[in-house]
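In response to reviewer comment 3 from the previous cycle, which asked for concrete evidence that the modeling workflow produces usable outputs, we include below a single protein chain processed end to end. The sequence was submitted unchanged, and the resulting structure tokens are shown without manual editing.
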Amino acid sequence: MSDDPYLWRLCSDQVIRRCILDAKINSVLQFCHAAPGGSHDGSTRTTRKVMDCGFYWPTIFRDVYQLVSTCEKFFDVWGIDFIEPFPISNWYSYILLVIDYVSGWVQAIATKTNDAKVVVDFLKSNIFCWFGVPKALISDQGSHLCNIAMSSLLHKYGMVHRIAITYHPQTNDPAEVFNREIKKNTAKDNQPQQERLKPTS
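The workflow returned the following structure tokens.
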């Protein structure tokens, strides 16, 4: 009697693969589809990756299809936020930033104001034209992001607006994290030269 604790299956391609428990299926699917290197491929390629990893279970094709059909793909969901205030430079004192939740891709511009028109124009010319219309946009409750102009834009293009509530700001976490890094780096750049050169003990 074998001491091997696993169940194995000889598949139709004559490769022996390990059968995994139901509790492990989701983690395997997420790894092969969405983890770094997963690339959010379609059903066929994701299934092939699972099988290339040496795994099998009876409902593998159905489960992969369900995952892929409900998965948020690249550029489907963006976080958006203003970074402010900054010392005015050529009349620019704000940075409007958007970040894709899946790939981490960032788009940002310096702006003179932080009003709704700036946001709408930026989304149309820098996001929609290059990456397509996303399914959802995530922001805080700032008036420059929650207003009639934004509501009209979202309704026109069939987008969902998810609000990061004040006591749960991690809803917009990727944008918030990137904002903090920019603020930290620009704060260093804006220090007086003698302060930057001050020796540390």
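The chain has two domains: 7-70, 77-190. We consider this sufficient to address the reviewer's concern, and the full set will be provided in the supplementary archive.
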